Amino acid sequence: MNIKVLIVEDNPITSQDLEEILTENGLNVVGVARTGNQAINKARDLQPDILLMDIQLDGSKNGISVVQEIYKTDYYPVVYLTASTNREHIEKAYSTFPSAFLSKPFDQKDLIHAIELAFVNHYQFIRGSSNIPEMNKSIFLRNGDKYEKVNIEDVQIINADGSYSTIITKNHSYSISLNLQSLALKLGNPLFFRLHRSFIVNLKWISGFDNQHVFIDEQIIPYSKNYREELLKYLHKF
User: Fold this and answer.
1) Residues 99 and 11 in one domain
2) Is residue 164 within a helix (H) or strand (E), and if so which, with residue range?
3) What is the pLDDT of residues 144-175, one digit of tens each?
4) Which of 11-15, 76-80, 104-108, 146-150 has the lowest mean pLDDT?
5) Which of 39, 48, 152, 186 could disulfide-pair with 33, CB 3.0 to 4.6 Å?
6) Has residue 7 got a pLDDT over 90?
7) Which residues contact 204 (CB under 8 A, 6 or more apart)?
8) Same domain, yes or no, for 65 and 104?
9) Which residues constitute the domain of residue 42?
């Protein structure tokens, strides 16, 4: 399994040890963050599969508050590392629904197993989620006190809204209780492209683009420079 891991650890010796252990066991360390702000930015840019998060970080943000901030727009399973047995910290960490806690010093095998299990459980949950039906040709979305049938090809834009997503068609918008990453996995449709951490668009509705935005009807949607090359490849296919 090519599992992408973001390490968040403020001790440079420990972070180097973690990177070596993970790499030697076939895991893909996509980045290392030393501070909370670095972790937030790298998580959004690198889109890891797993966060390996030290709870005690230097600075104003601890590992728990960092995860809470990341979860406003994205969800990644988190494996916490901690040298503390502070019950208050552990109970606060439970609010982020971690996949595992590991105490320092940790056993290497336990570390690898925790990461692999977190990845497998999350993948199976996403594929088996019953929040919405598998998206093929249509989906029923709630509008007030009723559900409306919406053709998938009529969806123009999907916008992240914290732990929810807003699905936008030409004439209406709907809120759904899945974050953008979970919804992206559910789509399974080549028409849809994630061009920003907060936006997925339907390629067939794009009427134009410039160096920073794509245009759909009257709406202007930013796209990340990290996605530019891939976006252009997809646009040439349709």
Assistant:
1) yes
2) strand 164-169
3) 777 788 888 899 999 987 767 899 998 899 88
4) 146-150
5) 39
6) yes
7) 153, 191, 238
8) yes
9) 4-128
**133 part of a folded domain:** no
Q: How confident is the model at residue 133 (pLDDT cuts 50, 70, 90)?
A: very low
The residues with which 103 forms a beta bridge, in sequence order, are 82
In this structure, the answer to whether residues 113 and 28 fall within a common structural domain is yes
Choose the final residue of a domain: 75, 104, 128.
Answer: 128
Which of 2, 8, 16 minimizes the C-alpha distance to 43?
8
| Closest to 60 measured CA to CA, from 81, 35, 96 | 35
Q: Where does residue 162 rank: exposed (0-12), middle (13-18), buried (19+ CB within 10 A)?
A: exposed
Q: What is the pTM of this model?
A: 0.57
| CA distance readout (Å), 114 to 30, 53, 90, 93, 111 | 18, 13, 17, 16, 5
